[in-house]
Design goal:
The complex is a heterodimer of chains A (158) and B (301). By secondary structure, chain A is an alpha+beta fold. Chain A is built from five helices and five strands. Chain A has helices spanning 22-29, 85-92, 102-115, 121-127, 139-157, and strands at 2-7, 10-15, 48-51, 54-57, 70-72. A five-stranded mixed β-sheet of chain A has the order 2-1-5-3-4, sandwiched between helices. The model of chain A has no long low-confidence stretch (mean pLDDT 96). Chain B has 301 residues and is α+β, with helices and mostly antiparallel strands. In chain B, strands 4-5-10-6-7 form a five-stranded antiparallel β-sheet. Chain B has a four-stranded antiparallel β-sheet with strand order 11-12-13-14. In chain B, β4 (75-77) and β5 form a beta hairpin. In chain B, α10 packs antiparallel against α11 (252-265) and α11 (252-265) packs across α12. The model of chain B has no long low-confidence stretch (mean pLDDT 92). Chains A and B meet through β4 of A and α2 and α6 of B.
Amino acid sequence: MKIELIVNGARKIVDVEPNELLINVLREKLGLTGTKYGCGIGECGACTVMVDGEPVLSCLTLAVEVAGREITTIEGIAKDGQLDPIQEAFIEEGAIQCGYCTPGFIITAKALLNENRSPSREEIVEYIKGNLCRCTGYINIIKAIQKASEKITKNLYK
Amino acid sequence: MRADYVNLVNTHIIPVEFTYHAPETLEEALKLLREYQGQARIIAGGTDLIVDIKLRRKEPKHIISLSRIRELDYIIEEDSGVRIGAATKLRSIEKSRIVYERFEALHQAVKSIASIQVRNMGTLVGNICNASPAADSAPPLLIYDAIVTAQNLEGSRKIMMRNFFTGPGKTCLRDDEIVTEIFIPYPPRDSVSSFLKISRVGMDLAKVNIALLLKFNSNVVEDFRIALGAVAPTPLRIFRAEEYLKHKLLNEENLKKVEEIVSEEIKPITDVRSTEWYRREVSKTFVRDALNMAVNKMVIK
């Protein structure tokens, strides 16, 4: 069946099977391979994308279920060639090692900072509970999100 | 969602074909469910169903989605309680002011479920219809005496939460019924409720979870309700412990007795998440901790 998706602001018409997962449509039909496949059962958060601004797991979402909705993937986070403050902070804080979990983390962090510009450390830890990283031990990821929060707040008052 | 599933099968794709239906009204959904009775599954969030299908634990020929049925997404306050629709996401319940203020144990339980991503997808009704013995929302709904509304083409019926679960993954729902809402009556004024769970890491299903409600009349316990999950084939109200503590003082002797009754009434198993012995032991401690939590809340209030 043909469905319409708004992916990173652009309207896309894709032909999908009822049993096709959103992650596979993004990666294979739209060439957006930034979103990563991890555990496949909702434990690791590597496949996190936003649907209408809310982070969800694209590996447990039927593409047909999100017909007509707005999808944001990691490819849609930078604007006009300019990295998002969260992306900058991840680089600056060394919050990336192998990088596989990073797109999921950045999407989740983006959703968090959209909701709450200055989260406490505890709020950050709670919010990223569904994203697993097997390299960094999370310390630098948390630091990066804190730094991104500072960048965003500072920018607002510039 | 379950640790014992990991990497047993390739789960990149869904290895089962089905027809997808996205009705826009409840009426339409009920008709589809009747038409494909026995071969259809309802999907609301999909966080349990899709995993089960990927692993071929379930192979429905038809999937009927509730995601387009606007009339099922609500949290409505009434004089006697709150009504929550079948398509209402866990995240909306977590953010609901009234749930936070009046149903503390439910708020805590919902907040503790998996992750933000899963709570953005999953629903409260889905959590109970999946009927995991470890469902975190079940103990709170049990202590609040929630009432489930199930509907088919002929009409609707009300099911007391305590009669809803019949076994692991099993409920008393018929093949042609959809749970349309859960009604949760307000707990008595001046009562407090608490929820606790223990799991290996935050994302895991509970090894044991517990919800209880407590109300004093001067020093004497006037109302006491207690329910545990993951310690029996279904989430369980422990009525014998409730009866024992009512009209008594909450002292060390009575507390010990309540712990003892709870550990006698539960029927835990040994599985990947825990052993029977551990569950029995930790349940006792949990009764004590949850009661302490409730008493502390009362002092703060």
